[in-house]
Amino acid sequence: MRRFLAMLPLALLVACSPASPPPDQKPPQPKSEAASAPDNAELGSPQWFEWVDERLQISDDGHGPDRGSAEWNRAVQHKLGQEAPQSQPGSPQWQQAVDALLRTRPAM
């Protein structure tokens, strides 16, 4: 009887422990900012425009200004607010500054 009572807490602990996921299933990993950034996308490329658009939520389900257009550049400037680069919107210097800013700031 003493053995049974001594083993009871251990049995309850094992029975109440949460089950671990099967080895072939891994829990989903959160998407990091670095992983979502187009590391190999060239500034001004369609992939880069898409990334900036997604980060700043310029387009709404594909509706909005054409990526890279003057209207789109103004929308990017507006979304960045006071942090917006002072160089000519759309210029290579502006794209580089936008890229650097978005890589260092948290996603909206």
Please tell me about this protein's structure.
With about 110 residues, the protein is mainly α. Helices cover about 50% and strands about 0% of the residues. It has helices at about 1-15, 35, 45-55, 70-80, 90-105. It has a domain at about 50-108. About 10% of the residues are buried. The mean pLDDT is about 80.
- Biggest sheet statistics: none
- Residue share in β-strands: under 5%
State the helix count: 5
Morphology: rod-shaped
Name the average pLDDT.
Answer: 79
Structural class, by secondary structure, is mainly alpha
* Count of beta strands: 0
From the alpha-carbon coordinates, what is the Rg to the nearest angstrom?
25 Å
Helix content: 40-55%
Gap from first CA to last CA:
62 Å
Which spans have pLDDT < 50 for at least 5 consecutive residues?
none
| Helix and strand element order | HHHHH
